[in-house]
Amino acid sequence: MSVQLFARARDLAGAGSVSVELPEGATVGEVRAALAKAYPALQPIAPSLLVAVDADYATDAQRLQPGQVVACFPPVSGG
After folding, report:
1. pTM confidence score
2. Measuring CA to CA, how many Å separate 26 from each of 32, 38, 41, 58?
3. Opening angle at CA 37, ends 14 and 45, nearest 5
4. Residue 75: pLDDT band by 50, 70, 90 thresholds?
5. Which whole-number Å values give the CA distances from 39 to 50, 53, 79, in the listed order?
6. Gap between the Cα atoms of 58 and 73, Å rounded
7. Is residue 75 within 8 Å of 57, Cβ to Cβ?
8. How many angstroms separate the CA atoms of 20 and 31, rounded?
9. DSSP labels for the chain?
10. pLDDT in tens, 22-68
11. Which of 3, 21, 46, 60 would be a feasible disulfide site paired with 29, CB 3.0-4.6 Å?
């Protein structure tokens, strides 16, 4: 599955889009774990990454379907 990365996540992984191997019907939580395993530099921020599926925020329990767009980015702070 292709995952788009933004901001600090992109910097740590060294790419704006990465691929992770997942079984069919994987969850967002499994995407998060696969990213941390495949890209160790992401491990410190993996638990706090915001994940969007098809432009809507997703929980770790959400199941993914083929062809969905997955994007991850760290939460932002400031004001």
Report:
1. 0.90
2. 11, 16, 22, 13
3. 65
4. confident
5. 17, 20, 30
6. 12
7. no
8. 7
9. -EEEE-HHHHHHHTSSEEE----TT-BHHHHHHHHHHH-GGGTTTGGG-EEEETTEE--TTPBP-TT--EEEE------
10. 999 999 999 999 999 999 999 999 999 999 999 999 999 999 999 99
11. 60
- Order of strands, edge to edge, in the sheet holding 56-57? 17-19, 2-5, 70-73, 50-53, 56-57
Q: Which two tokens stand for residue 31?
A: 């995407």
How far apart are alpha carbons 66 and 76 in whole angstroms?
Answer: 29
Give the tokens for residue 54.
């098809």
Q: Which amino acid is at 27?
A: T
